[in-house]
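Team,

Forwarding the record for the chain on the shared tracking sheet. I've put the sequence and predicted structure together so nobody has to dig through attachments.
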Amino acid sequence: MSEALIETRLPLGGRRQGKVRDTYEMDYPEVGGVPALVIVATDRISAFDVVMPNGVPNKGVILNQISAFWFEMIEREFGDAMAHHVLDVPENFKVPGGGVSDEVHESLRGRVTIGRRTNVIPIECVARGYLAGSGWKEYQASQTVCGVKLPAGLRQCEKLPEPIFTPATKAEEGHDENIDFDTACGIAGRNVMETLREKTLAIYQMAHDYALERGIIIADTKFEFGLPLDVSIEGGNVGGNGGGGDVILIDEVLSPDSSRFWPADRYEAGRDQDSYDKQFVRNYLEGLVSEGKWNKTAPGPSLPEDVIAGTLGKYREAMSKLMGEDG
């Protein structure tokens, strides 16, 4: 198994490190010097909001290619009605200005997305088609999910009568917090949030139907959106020249890291589902917790080879089903 890429240190400005992606700022010469982000999908893997010390080799390449596949489909399906940030997904990205070794450039192969810089709207836009995760927990307590009233008697992981939009606040660290639609409007403005809800549900429905035909249920997914750099949000008001029509789809889309992917042929409401994401990792870590060997706080434990191999196999299987490729 090849070595995992855990982090990057490129000679570019504005470096930020998320749980999986390293981002840098640059003016992208291929499209007239547009202010852009260089987004590198590493092989880091997190669970319970803790990044593990070792990664899953080639996971970042798979995630980047799946996301690029969906961005292309979104553009075909929706055209100008669904603006997005992707400027380029270069197979062999070269850092401008030199000073970077061939080895480093090779490590970036297939991992980079060049995205237009935006003012990020501080709302996670979640579409749910099935009752799982935090939504299932809230439903058991109140028969609602993020303020959306649902019918009585639904079972765990059951398909909802129709997909629902459930926003959350974006957390720099720790868990995002689920909020209701009116609270989200107070943060981003009602016109913007109504547009985000419409776009989120439209993309989810398109992707769900496509994936289901290929044996994958997308139970839920989350999107992020931004506004042009000359448009800002302050206290729920959209400044500059913008409004809801200016929103831009950003970050990654519809990957196993940002979605729940379930195998359709093993789906059964009323129980937890098998998945195409970090199931091997979570199961291993839960075992450590039950044995008193870890408490779900940093630092995380190193993952054994069989867990890494099993996780990589799930990501590759999802890519194969969706794209007809084996990664």
